[in-house]
Amino acid sequence: MSNGTVVLAYSGGLDTSCILVWLKEQGYDVITYLANIGQDEDFEAARKKAESLGAKKVFIEDLRSEFVEDFIWPSVQANAVYEDRYLMGTAIARPCIARRQVEIARMESAQFVSHGATGKGNDQIRFELTCYALYPEVKIIAPWRIPEFYNRFRGRTDLMEYAKKHGIPVPVTPRAPWSMDANLMHISYESGILENPKSHAPADLYLMTKNPEDAPNVPDVLEIEFRKGFVAKASIQKYPLSLLLSPRGKHGVGRIDIVENRFIGMKSRGIYETPGGTVLLKAHLDIETFTMDKEVRRIKQGLGVKFSELVYNGFWYSPECDFVRHCIAKSQENVEGKVQLSIFKGQVYILGRESPKSLYNEELVSMDVQGDYDPCDASGFIRINAVRLREHCRLQGFSDPKP
Amino acid sequence: MSNGTVVLAYSGGLDTSCILVWLKEQGYDVITYLANIGQDEDFEAARKKAESLGAKKVFIEDLRSEFVEDFIWPSVQANAVYEDRYLMGTAIARPCIARRQVEIARMESAQFVSHGATGKGNDQIRFELTCYALYPEVKIIAPWRIPEFYNRFRGRTDLMEYAKKHGIPVPVTPRAPWSMDANLMHISYESGILENPKSHAPADLYLMTKNPEDAPNVPDVLEIEFRKGFVAKASIQKYPLSLLLSPRGKHGVGRIDIVENRFIGMKSRGIYETPGGTVLLKAHLDIETFTMDKEVRRIKQGLGVKFSELVYNGFWYSPECDFVRHCIAKSQENVEGKVQLSIFKGQVYILGRESPKSLYNEELVSMDVQGDYDPCDASGFIRINAVRLREHCRLQGFSDPKP
Amino acid sequence: MSNGTVVLAYSGGLDTSCILVWLKEQGYDVITYLANIGQDEDFEAARKKAESLGAKKVFIEDLRSEFVEDFIWPSVQANAVYEDRYLMGTAIARPCIARRQVEIARMESAQFVSHGATGKGNDQIRFELTCYALYPEVKIIAPWRIPEFYNRFRGRTDLMEYAKKHGIPVPVTPRAPWSMDANLMHISYESGILENPKSHAPADLYLMTKNPEDAPNVPDVLEIEFRKGFVAKASIQKYPLSLLLSPRGKHGVGRIDIVENRFIGMKSRGIYETPGGTVLLKAHLDIETFTMDKEVRRIKQGLGVKFSELVYNGFWYSPECDFVRHCIAKSQENVEGKVQLSIFKGQVYILGRESPKSLYNEELVSMDVQGDYDPCDASGFIRINAVRLREHCRLQGFSDPKP
Amino acid sequence: MSNGTVVLAYSGGLDTSCILVWLKEQGYDVITYLANIGQDEDFEAARKKAESLGAKKVFIEDLRSEFVEDFIWPSVQANAVYEDRYLMGTAIARPCIARRQVEIARMESAQFVSHGATGKGNDQIRFELTCYALYPEVKIIAPWRIPEFYNRFRGRTDLMEYAKKHGIPVPVTPRAPWSMDANLMHISYESGILENPKSHAPADLYLMTKNPEDAPNVPDVLEIEFRKGFVAKASIQKYPLSLLLSPRGKHGVGRIDIVENRFIGMKSRGIYETPGGTVLLKAHLDIETFTMDKEVRRIKQGLGVKFSELVYNGFWYSPECDFVRHCIAKSQENVEGKVQLSIFKGQVYILGRESPKSLYNEELVSMDVQGDYDPCDASGFIRINAVRLREHCRLQGFSDPKP
Q1: What is the pLDDT of residues C329-374, one digit of tens each?
Q2: Which N-terminal residues, if any, form the signal peptide (chains A, B, C, D) (predicted)?
Q3: Which of A177, A225, C109, C257 is a plausible cystine mate for A232, CB 3.0–4.6 Å?
Q4: B264 and D295 in contact by Cβ < 8 A?
Q5: Whether residue D94 lies in the annotated active site
């Protein structure tokens, strides 16, 4: 008699292979599910492994295109950056993966979903909030939060032993002394030796970007076109998905080393590579400010900060994030045009921009021609803005403004 | 009979020399005032020029140290960035200059102040709001907004002619086809050929930073120490003011090319070099997030955006900017520690950080030890956060979340 | 030879009658325009007066219905309140009036518009920003800001004299010692004896609401239905426009006496009556919180504050206000249901509410049944929320929290 | 052998009496603690009851004055209102009570604290976050979240039986069909028959305020003085604590019936009476806007909203709430002066105000005198504000602004 069916987010690695077997031990039927979001993986090997370990069914799903369309593009529109630096390559992948997991669970009439995320991280939250939001009745099995599981598997050694005992193939190459998460947009590195915030990242850690010191000695110049705040089809045809991938990595763009605040209130150290995302952020910022009204942009900037917090915290599928995405998309209607930029040794330089919809008025702003502008108006503008300041000064009495 | 005394912000250049003479023509006694905020200038030559043109008195004031202490440090505390990119090297210099101008006006019992800023820019506002805020009774003479002046001097040729006629020394080297503003923190370039937002900046425009392509092939590694969000004395002794100056320029750090929104509602194109400021921003961001509570930082981030708007718009001396500065300074009490970073070919890389006051808890966040943390708590945390999302989903009825 | 055609916002009163004649003196053809937005006015008398004073054409436009549909309803959706108290009955009328004025100007090929608003107030700004936003080439004649006009008419006596001289009928009843502005939503009172912020408003000032002391001794109970955040048709049929008018005035609802901050930076004292608007605000707040997701509401609340500032300052027609209105309207999609309330002696009491779209779940929240809720989850929720607080306390060392 | 010592927040009622005995059953030594924050209670009877039930020690603490000083005044400064309506009389009492509870626990070397709050409410969070924030090592026993407890006591009947069995005095008067929480600032009512959001509150529910229909037929006029945003000593002497109590209740002020969003994501219906707090909020709002700079107020308003969310959610003792309180207090330095108001049948009317520190300038704002103001400046002010709007209109092409 089965205790029910579980859809397990399966990576093919040691942890989730042990979880697969352990779930079976607990009396569940296990369906494995592996999403292809552009990470470097032998998907067929993972399929075989899952089947050999007794998965009732195996799903390998290519989500790359919906990851780009539904998750990366809206983040570009939002200039999404968490705590001023992190481009959230992992955070936006989680709802994409979990959305499909829930679809499979519904399709397969599974009451349970499971994953191998740890109990201290953000990813457990991002996975599970998505599951609950899209499938409120689902039950979630998170082994790393179940005492019987985590007390049994206190370290890698315990997993290895269990693996050997249950015929789970054991990795032969030694594991890097940190953990990683990769997709077509970025790679993140954390924990292990990186937990000491003072110690520098080893040079061989980075897999997605070249060391800027070894990057080409000649800049790469490109032009990206936007339409409604999205990368335009023309640009995607010109730089197919590679926008998000290797060419920028070749230049060593998009490496950061930060300490960030997790949703659960811990500070953690993370190292990220987001080559294409960094280029897109800079390009989008440029075309957005070029075309969008100043005050609309100010409001939209606040919504973008909100969006980033929500996504980082796992609320991609929430009424408020839906609302914010809708508002941001509305703000992008005229964000259209071309940005020229150069990429060199880890840095992106904006060179110029043009747009059929810009509010930039060369004549109006010119120092050489007057345009439809009367400089005398500025006197009144300044004096009225000063009304309040002058009253304030008078009330205070004159005082030396130096601190 | 004099019409009164004017304190003129004098640069020694053609424009303000003509204004000096023109003001005398209008019957004013003119006191010239030239602030040294680190720009490359022959101050003694300027003094002699002003005297020879009939200035009643000449003030040359070295404000470099108060510019750093009172304006740059608070901006570093605020992570001050306008429209996500501009570090406001010009915007924070204006209140510094105008503050002293007003002090001189009070000291010399001058009822008037004057400046050579144009009628379309931000600087006129920054100068004048500071003047009104600190000297509410002052009268401001802004020749470039007075029809008799600007109709007489419609271009550089008119100024040259007037100069020749009035014995004003005329510059012999041809002027760059753009305008510039420099201080110890940055140089800005705008107008002229830069007014076409599509045209790339010429390579020889940049004066403060080296072309990253010609920058050293070996990174520079440094460590900056902060105390209360300021650069600590120890670091200032180690890298004396050079923090803000050439060494980082040597690496080509801090170049940006943007279109920004002026306070008066125009979009304008500006190119900026802020080598040291860029390094400090990145270092401060790192140590701030490392030491400051997550939610305090979130509130402080909003105040920093507000601060940037206020400063950009000329409201450094305003009740609200005083208030915001006070709040931000309060938030910095524990922002203390050392940041290690490397600088290479235009880019800044954070390498590590340490602090006696960090909320970072290596044991708590560790994936290898449990610390004072029960993973089971996360289940409750997630489920309670999902209460609202599940209700929402149920009310909507199940619907495909794909757009 | 005419200097051009002016569309003058004409009230029929002494001021704008003098302006009409004065504009003709200056060589303009004058078209008068009087909007009916529900104020108590003899529109036909005004028409005759304008004609007799030489208006080239007279427009009397009934804008009541578009005032309600296009301006009041969106303000109700936004819970629009300026500085926590003022419901902006005047502020939302101005763009309604000016929009039609500009339409007439375009239709009549008039290059000029004019109005009788003073040079210290908000209304000049609200009128003119609307005009510029919808007709960028328009020229505005604001006599109270033209020295030749305001120096000639330094007080009411000067206007009376001019009127007599030019055959302008002079009011026979003495003017109230304050100024007023009325429409179907509200009446405002300011200036004159009200300029002393300490002096109490005289009891006979109020024209729209009864003194609560004289209001009925029995509460009025009503039920208002909303749909998409608007008052539903059913309710409008039940309480036709009177929702916004007398019945609530009968109960003395909606009187406030405040000092507010004008856009131009002065503080001014205003007294307002907004009987129906006050009822609608309370009812809408209730149904909104009942139906809208908590976090959506939080974001929407911020947008509502922004909306109020924009509208108060005259930016109804601006890209940012369009954007904010769009976002707010989006948030209202599920704001649907009925609110029961009672009105008594100046106060509104919410009694109950119901909705087919509420996220309120009686079973879930019940103290008597458990619903789909596990109380144990709250422990984890609290403990995770405390992670950060405990770290903070430990870093600080124990200290007495008493100030 | 004891399992340790628990400090139990004890009310003297049936629930916490059962908890007391149950905790002893579980092997704990129980210290009871009852805070006097102005609720109507027989404290001596509660002491005897606790002693008779085996409390090891009994603390009855009079916190009324610190409740006012440390919690009510800062909330008045903040204009603290949750979701636009709730004045948070319960939310601010919780950290006051828990702070002392933790002090007692430390003093008595108790490792445990306990309370009788339910598992669905906000109060459990407010209590516990305070405890964790001030005593990070404390262990919390929340019986209503412990399955052995809540499964044993599924309703009032179970508690009654248990009480009878263990010699706990059983209340003789029938309980109201809702729950209540009272202190000197307010009473809240929720659950029971109030859980149906449509049903009206029974007239006899209200204990703190008179039915406005029965309130005096003559208004009460009073004057409240503020200093630094606090109620000034002079006013407290004049209206001793009664400010917060009965006289305003006599007029039926401060009744609201709302549906609010709990921190845990449920919507719940609450009815509140806050007579004095409502008067103080209106008075403080008036004097604050009268004295504070417009833009400071705008920023402070945002901080006040944040403060309200934090306090409602239980984060009174958190780094961010400390920070926000500090900033708000700073904003109040000039909030000084007297407000005259009248109270009548449930409503508060502001009549006038005066202050030695107001930015209100009667001459400046006067419609009759010009003051230090040039109306021509307003033209420039408006035209510069319109620059952006005109550009926008031109880019869009002319379009009918009607929706």
Answers
A1: 999 999 999 999 999 999 999 999 999 999 999 888 888 888 889 9
A2: none
A3: A225
A4: no
A5: yes
